[in-house]
Amino acid sequence: MQPETATYSSFKTDRRKFYIVAANGTALYVLAYYLVWGLHQMAKLAVSHHFQLRGIWDPSTIRYTLADNEWWRTAIIAVYGSGPVVCLILGLVAFRWFWRGERARRGQFKLLLLWVAFHSCNAVFGALLADTFTHSGFWYVPDWLLGLGNVLNVILALLAGLVQLGLGYFGAIAFLQAHDSHTVMRYDNRQLMVVSTLVVPWVAGSVFIALTKMPYLNVQESLHLAMMGLLVTPLALGCLNEVFSETVKRPQATRVAWGLLGLAIMVAVVWRLALSPPLTFG
Fold first, then answer.
1. Is residue 7 part of a domain?
2. Residue-number span of the structural domain to which 199 is assigned
3. pLDDT, tens digit, 9 for 90 and up, residues 164-212
4. Is 4 domain-assigned?
5. pLDDT tens-digit series, residues 236-253
6. Membrane-crossing residues (predicted)?
7. Where are the alpha helices (DSSP H) in 51-149?
8. CA distance 56 to 65
């Protein structure tokens, strides 16, 4: 009877570790989201001030109150292109920082860097695909810059979606190296690992973000949140196919990062309160 009791106790402990990494991962997902999209909207707002544009900034997006004839080509490209450019640079810096300096270290910071890189990717490639559906946001940049027409704009957006799918799949090795727990990293636990570190943070994090932005949440941002699935899904498949299971030799104990959870909630609440009621500019 004793061996059975020990096995059952070990199983409960292992399950508890997956619950913990799911909670911590969700907090990191939310923090990375607000960092990336916060810088995205700050860049957009700075360019708007430069061109003296009028608009409203609410918890979900920046909306302009200009008539169509008040816009001009340079302002459109600069305003709607500034955010993705900043996010592209941020994503490259975050991934380089992770790969060169953090992936062999223990702790939560390396996973935060990776989620920043993933959200930055989504703010460029996923956003282009999503915004093409709604004819808004980043879609204006290729439409006005290249003048390709609607059919070629759709093809360009689909190519962006394919890029996001590819980056997700090839990011599997990096994502696996972002975790410390030997239990989580065991290959025979890979399905649980994928659910707790990828699926739960994406779904739970996106639902939390959406709820904290109601009733300001619009279709465009809802699509942005959904487009992370184009990265998470191939990333999950890549993790399932990889046999890589190594981690740092002396990982930190698997504990609930209450500080991270509290910070994620605080950032979401402050964002909502600061932009509700919406701020006007211009």
1. no
2. 16-281
3. 999 999 999 999 998 888 888 888 889 999 999 999 999 999 999 999 9
4. no
5. 999 999 887 777 677 677
6. 18-36, 75-99, 111-130, 150-172, 192-211, 223-244, 256-274
7. 73-97, 109-121, 127-134, 140-145
8. 7
